[in-house]
Design brief:
The structure is a homodimer of 189-residue chains.
Chain A: H1 6-22, H2 29-36, H3 40-46, H4 50-75, H5 80-89, H6 94-97, H7 104-111, H8 117-139, H9 145-166, H10 171-183
Helix pairs in contact in A: 1-2, 1-4, 4-5, 4-8, 5-8, 5-10, 7-8, 8-9, 9-10
Chain A binds a DNA duplex (30 and 30 nucleotides) through residues 1-2, 5, 7-8, 28-30, 38-42, 44-46, 49-50.
Chain lengths: 189, 189
DNA sequence: ACGTAGGTATACCGACCGTTCTACCTACCG
DNA sequence: CGGTAGGTAGAACGGTCGGTATACCTACGT
């Protein structure tokens, strides 16, 4: 079963759009099949269950993030501070302009409990981002890289969610200010 | 229809628990009825539709928050700075220890789109909290109270969500540090 | 004594949920 | 030529969804 068939890709694209825009539980298989122009049988051949589809949806989102972050870090291999600064500005980029509904991992975690694949993916992905931040902070000689990495995650999380809920455009500047303060080691407990 | 009947209260308590712990879409009317020990007819007499029940659930949550905030502000009527500081520590209080699944408004917003009651409630409630913060900041002579109020909302949002997703106990201290920095006007764009 | 408010029990509605079935088609490859 | 991978079409499964209908009970206030 080729993982790159046209039908499979159409299913994935449709699921990504609907899951993100309307929520996972709000979107049934019937609708995905219909909008993807595919038979139910075809969908279930590629994804044995809806949970598999959900898992692939989130994994693809995570992979996209990882590619973007890894690319940026590699681009500034000799300047970790610049990498950290630019990691913040990704939030105001065009890519994120389309993400009006906030973070897919946070949103999906709100829809499921404890051991569901969605929550597992969220935990894993957030831990990965945190570890990247920690390493960069270590490289620039931050006094408390682990703590600061968690702080960065915290303000980023707040920024993404607040933007999705409050629609306040001025927030970007406030977020950037907080982000840079943490990098400079001005925020400590 | 008395808004304080025993059955009605049991329905409300059950809905509150299940909606918060497992998500709104994840919990059907059948289950609420069953666990509340009430007939479906009874439920639909008090709440004409599930959306009505959702709305009441969120309204009660909002009312609880407002009572708590108003009480705290009134208790420090002559010391707005103290009120602001203590508004942060509510997050680490016992009340919030039970809120392992994060903020009910943020979570419910993730489950619905655009014009749904859940999203309306979230917007309204967050706007109210923001206005309270802004007024307190104004009273302590903060140079940019509106912007700072949004910043406080942002870090609080990040703290609540991050705690629910990452289960990192050290986050509280980091959050408090950031909160106080904003109050002192050290974070500006 | 009687109506009404608030409740019970049970059965049902159409719609949609995730999932599976059977049957046939077609393009490509060894 | 034949097999296999990937697709089509359409019907159906049992279960749950939000919501309704009918009928009966009981406490209480006037």
């Amino acid at each position: 079963m080729s993982p790159r068939s046209a039908a499979r890709q159409r299913i994935l694209d449709t699921a990504d759009r609907l899951f993100y825009d309307e929520g996972i539980r709000a979107v049934g298989i019937h609708r995905i099949v219909e909008e993807a122009g595919v038979t139910r049988v075809t969908l279930y051949r590629h994804f044995p269950s809806k949970d598999d589809l959900i898992s692939t949806y989130l994994e693809n989102r995570a992979q996209y993030d990882r590619d973007q972050v890894n690319g940026l870090v590699a681009r500034h291999a000799d300047n970790p501070r610049q990498a950290l600064v630019e990691l913040a500005t990704v939030l105001t980029d065009d890519d994120f302009a389309a993400m009006q509904r906030g973070c897919p991992f946070i949103n999906s975690s709100a829809e499921f409990t404890g051991a569901h694949v969605a929550r597992e993916h969220s935990r894993t992905h957030r831990a990965w981002v945190t570890s990247v931040l920690e390493e960069l902070l270590t490289r620039i000689g931050h006094p408390a890289p682990r703590s600061a990495a968690h702080q960065l995650m915290m303000v980023r999380t707040g920024a993404v969610v607040s933007r999705a809920l409050d629609r306040n455009p001025e927030l970007s500047a406030d977020f950037l200010a907080g982000w840079n303060l943490i990098i400079d080691g001005s925020v400590s407990a």
